[in-house]
From TrEMBL, chain A:
Lineage: Bacteria, Pseudomonadati, Bacteroidota, Cytophagia, Cytophagales
Subunit structure: NDH-1 is composed of 14 different subunits. Subunits NuoA, H, J, K, L, M, N constitute the membrane sector of the complex.
Record PANTHER family: NADH-UBIQUINONE OXIDOREDUCTASE CHAIN 4L, NADH-UBIQUINONE OXIDOREDUCTASE SUBUNIT ND4L
Organism encoding this protein: Marinoscillum furvescens DSM 4134
GO molecular function: NADH dehydrogenase (quinone) (non-electrogenic) activity; quinone binding
One Gene Ontology term from the biological process aspect of the record: ATP synthesis coupled electron transport
Alphabetic keyword roster: Cell membrane, Membrane, NAD, Quinone, Translocase, Transmembrane, Transmembrane helix, Transport, Ubiquinone
Name of the featured protein: NADH-quinone oxidoreductase subunit K
Function: NDH-1 shuttles electrons from NADH, via FMN and iron-sulfur (Fe-S) centers, to quinones in the respiratory chain. The immediate electron acceptor for the enzyme in this species is believed to be ubiquinone. Couples the redox reaction to proton translocation (for every two electrons transferred, four hydrogen ions are translocated across the cytoplasmic membrane), and thus conserves the redox energy in a proton gradient.
Database matches in Gene3D superfamilies: 1.10.287.3510
InterPro entries given in the database record: NADH_UbQ_OxRdtase_chain4L/K, NUOK/Mnh_C1-like
Gene Ontology CC annotation, any one: NADH dehydrogenase complex
Top EC class, one word: translocase
Membrane topology (UniProt): Multi-pass membrane protein
Gene name for this UniProt entry: nuoK
Automatic annotation (TrEMBL), chain B:
Localization per Swiss-Prot or TrEMBL: Cell membrane
GO cellular component, one term: plasma membrane
Pfam families: Oxidored_q3 (PF00499)
Membrane topology: Multi-pass membrane protein
Keywords assigned: Cell membrane, Membrane, NAD, Quinone, Transmembrane, Transmembrane helix
Annotated function: NDH-1 shuttles electrons from NADH, via FMN and iron-sulfur (Fe-S) centers, to quinones in the respiratory chain. Couples the redox reaction to proton translocation (for every two electrons transferred, four hydrogen ions are translocated across the cytoplasmic membrane), and thus conserves the redox energy in a proton gradient.
Protein name according to UniProt: NADH-quinone oxidoreductase subunit J
Gene3D superfamilies: NADH-ubiquinone/plastoquinone oxidoreductase chain 6, subunit NuoJ
Reaction(s) the record says it catalyses: a quinone + NADH + 5 H(+)(in) = a quinol + NAD(+) + 4 H(+)(out)
Transmembrane segments: 6-26, 33-51, 57-78, 90-113, 141-162
Species of provenance: Marinoscillum furvescens DSM 4134
Top-level taxonomy: Bacteria, Pseudomonadati, Bacteroidota, Cytophagia, Cytophagales
Any GO molecular function: quinone binding
Amino acid sequence: MTAIPLTYYLVVAAFLLCAGLLIVLTKKNAIMVLIGIELMLNAANLNLVAFSRNDPQLNGQVFAIFSVVLAAAEVAIALAILLNIYRKYNSSDLDDLNTLEH
Amino acid sequence: MTMAINKLFFFFFAAMTVLPVIYILFTGNIVRSAFALVVSLLGVAALYVLLQAEVMAVVQLLIYAGGIIVLLLFGIMLTRRLSEEGVFAGHRGVVIGALMALMLFGMLVRLILGSGLEFETAAPVTDQVAHVGIAFLTDHIVAFELVAYLLLVALVGAAFLAKKSDKA
């Protein structure tokens, strides 16, 4: 079962991180930005689990499960805030939220 | 023989993780991006299985592919009027963003491939559910209780924020 090197998993995680970053930077819609954040969190979890594969304490997996729970809480709050923003500005486009801009 | 099958599975699920993300990068359709994200998250769950982290794989399936995606879809449906053509969102700052992400990816890959990191030789834990359960209720009991309160507060807060009222 040890045929796949650790570095392969790390490269996949690095790709997820960079793609998530790119989505956060370039997409205009707030929900797309949330999707990008989810991808970056997944990259971190994949790294944690990959590094703790042979840990008899399973600390990496426990940490990753905590991080998944926090991601769920984060998405719930973010979507509630987004809903309020949509009610106020009638748009979920991040470029429209420029009330403070002058 | 088993090695080749292992590699085949790894590359299949890595492609299942990576290709939908590339689709998300290029498409403007938000609903399709959310469903592409489901495929990608399922691929990550399969990678967890290949890493022999069964508990994490099940958690990924239940919370990410089940819960978070449903929340995201509700968010999309509630904040956009669905038309016949679908829901679209544009891009901005593509060149600079792509340049930065590519540079970061190049540096990370260079570092990872040059690091010579390997799996340790110790055998992975087999009965993981028991181990994770015991770890939650002994070593990580404080964090476990705090996360429980945080989740409760966050979900009640989200329900309150999303409530339709003039005062909120």
